[in-house]
Amino acid sequence: MTAELTFATTRREDPVPAAERETILANPAFGTIFTDHMLTALWTKGEGWRDGQVRPFGPLQISPAAAVLHYAQEVFEGMKAYRHPDGTVWTFRPERNAARMARSCERLALPVLSEEDFIGAIRALVTVDQAWVPASGSGESSLYLRPFMFASEAFLGVRPANEVTFSIIASPAGAYFPGGMKPVNLWLSTDYARAGAGGTGAAKCGGNYASSLAGQMEGIAQGCDQAVFLDSSTHTYIEELGGMNLFFVTRDGKLRTPALTGSILEGVTRDSILELAPDLGLEPDEARIGIDEWKDGVASGEITEIFACGTAAVVTPVGELRWDGGSAASTAGAEGGEVTRRIRQTLLDIQYGVAEDTRGWLTRL
Ligand code: COI
């Protein structure tokens, strides 16, 4: 596929003043503040992609009959732009996000955007908003990028939309969890599943996240931060957290993660950690992992560390697992185990240009 889109730029007349922007960048939270600009493009059946624009950040005008509002025909991605010590700005494995978005689009019957257009769009927005990428050396801060695509056609019949909007917004981001490296406690959701066989679990679509919220609410009511979801058929195998994949470090040097079954999201961070594992002296192992293996493994000392990972969360230590009537103790200490911290630092060093990118994972924006 070749690039179909070019982007016309309209700059915001009243950008956030530099001093205010610097205050925001010095201490960004997650997902609350957005840059001066956004990107949009339109697709219509028979005509393809057109009308690429980088324009002032602001409300989208859509019909209340837009199909996305009724039938959730929508997909999204999560990526980051990192500033390196020499001031240049880079992103991490964007071709992976482009490919995953294409797979999500196929599953949700949305049009596919080529890798060239996807990366071209990221570059077009970050070029205009590059002052919003936090300075090198500012801890874990980056510019979080949220590409998304939705059915914007006003039509209430149930069929794939004939008009679709692609957009990217950007948000300066610090740690996803306010506690930073403080371990997150997890609730084992047994009443709810996030996704089922043949469903949309492997796609990055809003519906999966919506369906994880009731389990998350249940967990929060029990004093936890997130919920763990099991497979929907047998309620025995660990899947993911809803917005993050899970890893287990074992006493005999394995780095285990649930195998992709079609109902688990194929995380870019997950894949990168599996690739980095041998460099860190760990044996990667993708397998069906029963929830009893977690409970028993923690009790016997077979599991030494557990962490969650994702673009937003990077690598976050997992503490206690709680369920109705019991709990499995934390293996994480106050700031995660040694292996968890080493994996996290290895990844961050590559992303922030501190360690050599021997795998060609970085793309300059
Ligand atoms: C990401 O990690 O980028 C996601 O999209 C997950 C979400 C929990 C923020």
UniProtKB/TrEMBL annotation:
Gene Ontology molecular function: branched-chain-amino-acid transaminase activity
The reactions it catalyses are:
L-leucine + 2-oxoglutarate = 4-methyl-2-oxopentanoate + L-glutamate; L-valine + 2-oxoglutarate = 3-methyl-2-oxobutanoate + L-glutamate; L-isoleucine + 2-oxoglutarate = (S)-3-methyl-2-oxopentanoate + L-glutamate
Which PANTHER family does this entry report, sorted A to Z? BRANCHED-CHAIN-AMINO-ACID AMINOTRANSFERASE (PTHR11825:SF44), SUBGROUP IIII AMINOTRANSFERASE (PTHR11825)
Give the residues annotated as coiled coil. none
Class of enzymatic activity (EC top level): transferase
Is Amino-acid biosynthesis given among the entry's keywords? Answer: yes
Its EC number is 2.6.1.42
* Needed co-factor(s): pyridoxal 5'-phosphate
- Write down the InterPro entries for this protein, in alphabetical order: Aminotrans_IV, Aminotrans_IV_CS, Aminotransferase-like, B_amino_transII, BCAT-like_C, BCAT-like_N, BCAT_family
- Tell me which family the UniProt entry assigns to this protein: Belongs to the class-IV pyridoxal-phosphate-dependent aminotransferase family.
The UniProt entry, under Gene3D superfamilies, shows:
3.30.470.10, D-amino Acid Aminotransferase, subunit A, domain 2
Instruction: Give the record's keywords alphabetically.
Output: Amino-acid biosynthesis, Aminotransferase, Branched-chain amino acid biosynthesis, Pyridoxal phosphate, Transferase
Tell me what this protein is called: Branched-chain-amino-acid aminotransferase
The record's annotation in SUPFAM superfamilies points to:
D-aminoacid aminotransferase-like PLP-dependent enzymes (SSF56752)
Pathway named in the protein's UniProt entry: Amino-acid biosynthesis; L-leucine biosynthesis; L-leucine from 3-methyl-2-oxobutanoate: step 4/4; Amino-acid biosynthesis; L-isoleucine biosynthesis; L-isoleucine from 2-oxobutanoate: step 4/4; Amino-acid biosynthesis; L-valine biosynthesis; L-valine from pyruvate: step 4/4
The answer to whether UniProt assigns keyword Transferase to this entry is yes
Pfam families registered for this protein in UniProt: Aminotran_4 (PF01063)
